[in-house]
Amino acid sequence: xxxxxxxxxxxxxxxxxxxxxxxxxxxxxxxxxxxxxxxxxxxxxxxxxxxxxxxxxxxxxxxxxxxxxxxxxxxxxxxxxxxxxxxxxxxxxxxxxxxxxxxxxx
Length: 106
Description:
- The chain is mainly alpha-helical.
- The chain is built from seven helices and no strands.
- Helix 3 (about 40-50) packs antiparallel against helix 4.
């Protein structure tokens, strides 16, 4: 899985292992506490990442959603649903961020 991360992230993650373990544990704990399945949780987080224009988080949550069973159409639809809320330019940017990742699965 480390090969999926940018080099700076992997290096920082290695240097601050306890910090990153705590972050990962928080995410897993929150997902287990609620009624939403893992795929839906990652699609929601994907939408939030797109809304705040976080390219790295968009990539991460798109990958995780796919791993949890999301289809390319579900990834695209999740982002496209945001158009009236975050605007077309931001939606378009997020779509471009997932394009290469999602198009490999088509």
